[in-house]
Amino acid sequence: MEGIPVEAFWCLAIIGMCSFVIQVCNKMWIKPRRIRSLLLKQGIRGPRPSSFFYGNIQEMQGIQSMAMEKARSQSQNQSISHNWVQYLFPHFLEWSQQYGPLYMYSTANKQHLYVGRPELIKELHHHKSLGLGKPAYLAKALEPMLGDGVANVNGPYWAHQRKVIAPEFFIHKVKHMTGIMEECTIRMIRGWERRVAIGGGVADITIDEDLRTLSADIISKACFGSSYSQGKQIFAKLDALRGIISTTRFSLGLPNLRFLPTKRNRQIWGLKKEVRRLILEVVNDRLENNQSFGKSDQKDLLQAILESADDSEAFQTNRDKDRFIVDNCKNIYFAGSETTSATATWILMLLALHPEWQERVRAEIVEICGDQLHDYFLDMDKLRQLKTLTMVLQETLRLYGPGTLLPREALAEIRLGDLTLPKGAYTWACIPALNRDTENWGPDCHEFKPERFAKGIYEACKYPQAYMPWGFGSRRCLGQAFAMLELKVILVLVVSKFTFSLSPEYHHSPVFKMTLLAKYGVRLLMRKIAK
Q: Which of 212, 222, 244, 254 is a plausible cystine mate for 177, CB 3.0–4.6 Å?
């Protein structure tokens, strides 16, 4: 401080402290109060924040505790209910009953708008600007898993990544991946056949892990040119990361002390470092192959990402380029395998629970494909003829879709119909709650009835825009076509080879861990169909 008068030093310190206090007050009190005021002026109500620091979090936790207590008291009932939303997201349902399908609530200093009105959901579908994006606080919480990949960023950087990745999942490219899907699925089926033979004609199989392995194998080969043996460590590390992150209520917006060297954070840092190392090994193998044999003939997603990184002038260092490659590979590895395997698991559970639909799907496969399944997979027209299977898929996505919550942040002031959404507000749509709206789906909305989709989505319900298993707007799932094709290939092969029913040991308990999973796994009694 030599040369600086003591009075001047203390003056600067006081100014700095005042500036800090003003910023904190604006973030914690002024900005949230302004957003709530703007929403209140538009007639939007909701539960009053019960705490300055926590908002409605304590009330949410109380509602959750009561719902879980109710679930435990009913656990003796062995019947399977598809209305699991009342236990996983009970506050959304309770507040909807009190305030209607459009209301606001708070978590810490975050102001949220719950959107359950179909006409506003339609507006969200049609909103294409960059002013509505992924909430920043969620992106920070998920950064160890997704980095700055396409699923976790906003603005021009997101638009650039989408431009690179989306074309790789267009149907004219995806249809050439059926051979990989068939090959990998047959390998899994042969393992099941061996277990059935050892079991004397029937095997009790927990299918979750096998389907997760299968989906990982498919995404590795189709998008990265590697086998599951090369990518299995990546999936294992990402799954471990998901498990750690899911133990916290990161969606509440509480302060995330991710920079402190706690045991949890050290685990996350170690796993993140390992995932990066493993992905770069796959990348370096490809780069060495490109150098040895010239430009790669493998026109897969990894090659597209590498070429985009080389062509882009946005990267100032190789470290920036490596991060772009690694982050997008992590996004594809996780999103491309986890959601598909979870959906396949729930479809087989429902077909086991409803053997009449299992038989209808099997009869349709025999009628359209006969014994020539390999030729069928090469014919997209025949794929479209499997109407019964498509109905089962759509109904499963309605009841057990892997995506459950759709959060968005207003990065600028947004107009949604007659509603003005102020900058800094967050919108939430609860997909499973929308999919169980009796006004939209009828009084049988909690039942498994694939026939409701017999004439397509637009005839299945009153407000088809509220059916969005793949998300909405410009940020809807890029891999939708890939996932649907993969699910159909898996189901055709499994249903044509086996009959299956629920194991007596199966315990129905859906749980939310970034995707919708079966807490105790899905156990099926598998029997091979005799030719």
A: 222
User: Dihedral, CA atoms, 483, 488, 490, 491, nearest 10 degrees?
Assistant: 130
Question: How many other C-beta atoms can be found within 10 angstroms of the C-beta atom of residue 268?
Answer: 19
pLDDT in tens, 240-296: 888 888 766 666 656 666 777 888 889 999 999 999 999 998 888 888 887 776 655
- Please give the radius of gyration of the chain, using alpha carbons only, rounded to the nearest integer: 25
pLDDT digits (tens, 9 = 90+) for 375-408: 666 677 777 889 999 999 999 999 999 888 999 9
Query: Residue 180 CB: number of other CB atoms within 10 A?
Result: 18
Place of tokens 């949890």: 264
> Which CATH number applies to 27-146+404-445: 3.30.43.20, 2.102.10.10, 3.40.50.620, 3.40.50.970?
3.30.43.20
Is 11 among the annotated ligand-binding positions?
Answer: no
What is the pLDDT at residue 1? Answer: 46
Long-range contacts, stretch 23-32, CB < 8 angstroms, 24+ apart: 27/109, 28/52, 28/109, 29/109, 31/109, 31/424, 32/106, 32/109, 32/110, 32/111
CB 476, CB 343: distance < 8 Å: no
Residue 118 and residue 440 in contact, taking contact as beta carbons nearer than 8 Å: yes
- Give the separation between CA 338 and CA 209, rounded to whole angstroms: 11
DSSP 8-state symbol, 475:
G
CA 470/CA 104 separation, integer angstroms: 25
How many angstroms from the chain centroid is the CA of residue 405? 8
The rounded distance, in Å, linking the Cα atoms of 483 and 470 is 10
CA–CA dist 498, 483 (Å, integer): 22
